[in-house]
Design brief:
There is one protein chain. The protein has helices at residues 3-8, 37-43, 87-100, 111-122, 137-151, 164-170, 193-202, 233-237, 252-266, 272-282, 285-304, 323-329, 344-354, 384-389, 406-417, and strands at 104-108, 128-131, 154-157, 175-181, 207-210, 228-232, 246-250, 309-313, 336-341, 359-360, 370-372, 396-400. The chain is α/β, with parallel strands linked by helices and 422 residues long. The protein folds into two domains: 3-282, Aspartate Aminotransferase, domain 2; 285-417, Aspartate Aminotransferase, domain 1 (Alpha-Beta Complex), CATH 3.90.1150. Helix 3 runs parallel beside helix 10 and helix 13 (344-354) crosses helix 15 (406-417). The longest helix is centred in the last third of the chain and has 20 residues, at 285-304. It starts with a helix and ends in a 5-residue tail after the last helix.
Length: 422
């Protein structure tokens, strides 16, 4: 859809046909796709020499205005109002689309909101979405409660997410989306992106990958055929727990459908200030993810050898069930891991309460190392059987490895684990 046309012809605001995967079409290559990832992290969407007048700035401008003046009675301005588009967030959306290799992007007030906006836009009562239990806890709540009970959209959970055939068996003529989260939170399950995408596309169904854990710095789902990417900006993208936001990257027709038919009326947008802050943080994304990955690898090796730890979930370990697949799909293995300690929930509580450098908090992807207990916090809504089926043991601790000196992280874990060692 032409942007200028969409602003002057309101018929373009409402798509006549729901967007679906078209096996005959190919997404256009972005103009800036030939530049390196680090270069695009700094320049996509805005270059210091692009501006004029007061906006000829080295740093992208922060525009806080909610509304934008008409220059003529019949000419709708672009942007027109803050619920649909703002200049600062447009730069961020261009940058995120460039980094993921997608055609277009729309931001949202949170990652949960971005997921809601996507499904609310593409699905209708009687439709379904195919996914697995390897999804973030709030997404599970949307899938099992909010959408089925309030919108009539059901979610089908595959029996064996490692088997592409298991995904295929859940797809039918009312399936609007296949939703993958890889690496998954909190157990770091790796889904075969290409395998599942091939199965879904053979049935004419688009695929969305939640790329929050890896980010485009380590994994590019669209290079593997994926149609849509979901992001929580709040995690590694911003990297310091100061921004709450989310994004959807995908075909422009879908993105504009979300923008004009959902976000415009629901109104849960990313604030320009949060967008501006994220632009600054993205400039160091590649370096940060390299450091997160290196630190997490060192911590994972330490934990894997500790007598009080019975399991470590980190795809960088050769012992990880999908290690080879992760090495094919990802540049590195990221900064998130989880591990199981002895004595179940009591053991996890003993460990967490003894930590001195590592912070107990609910999020991940921050510059500081943080931990939390998924069974009682993020994934408490799953049944015991569901948690057990995906490896969420009562003694599971999620660890988001930060940018500290790795020896200091390991020393803190070591002293805390001493209370659990036999």
């Amino acid at each position: 859809m032409d942007r200028e046309a969409s602003m002057t012809d309101k018929n373009h605001f409402f798509l006549r046909d729901p967007w679906r995967y078209d096996p005959q079409s190919k997404a256009p290559v972005r103009k800036d796709s030939s530049a390196g990832f680090e270069t695009r992290s700094l320049h996509a969407g805005f270059h210091p020499l692009d501006g004029t007048g007061p906006f000829r700035s080295f740093v992208p401008p922060l525009v806080q205005s909610v509304t934008y003046p008409y220059t003529d009675f019949d000419q709708i301005p672009n942007p027109v109002y803050g619920r649909t588009r703002t200049p600062t967030n447009t730069i961020l959306e261009e940058r995120l689309a460039s980094l993921e290799g997608g055609q277009s992007c729309i931001t949202a007030a949170s990652g949960c909101q971005a997921l809601f906006n996507l499904i609310f836009t593409i699905a209708r009562p009687g439709d379904n979405v195919v996914t697995s239990l390897n999804i973030f806890g709030e997404g599970y709540k949307q899938a099992t409660d909010i959408f089925p009970h309030r919108c009539g959209v059901t979610f089908r959970f595959v029996d064996d997410p490692a088997d592409a055939g298991s995904w295929d068996r859940q797809i039918d003529e009312r399936t609007k989306l296949v939703w993958i989260e890889t690496p998954s939170n909190p157990c770091l399950f790796i889904t075969d992106i290409r395998g599942v995408t091939d199965v879904a596309h053979a049935r004419g169904v688009p695929v969305m990958v939640d790329n929050t854990t890896a980010t485009a710095a380590l994994q590019r789902p669209m290079d593997l055929g994926v149609d849509i990417v979901l992001l929580s900006i709040s995690k590694f993208l911003s990297g310091n727990a100061t921004v709450l936001g989310g994004a959807i990257i995908g075909p422009e027709a879908l993105v504009e459908d979300i923008r004009w038919n959902t976000t415009e009326f629901i109104g849960a947008i990313l604030s320009p200030m949060a967008g501006w802050m994220t632009l600054q943080y993205l400039e160091t994304l590649s370096m940060r993810m390299d450091r997160h990955s290196a630190n997490a690898a060192a911590v994972a090796v330490f934990l894997d050898q500790h007598p009080a730890v019975t399991m470590v979930n980190y795809s960088g370990l050769v012992s990880h069930p999908q290690h080879d697949l992760a090495c094919r799909q990802m540049k590195a293995h990221g900064g998130l891991l989880s591990f199981v300690v002895k004595n179940g929930q009591a053991g996890a509580a003993t460990l967490i309460n003894a930590l001195r450098t590592v912070v107990h908090a609910v999020t991940f992807g921050t510059s500081r190392t943080i931990c939390m207990h998924p069974p009682t916090i993020t994934h408490e809504h799953l049944t015991v059987e569901e948690r057990q089926s995906i490896g969420i043991d009562d003694g599971l601790v999620r660890l988001s490895v930060g940018l500290e000196t790795p020896g200091d992280i390991i020393a803190d874990l070591d002293q805390a684990l001493a209370g659990l060692a036999p």
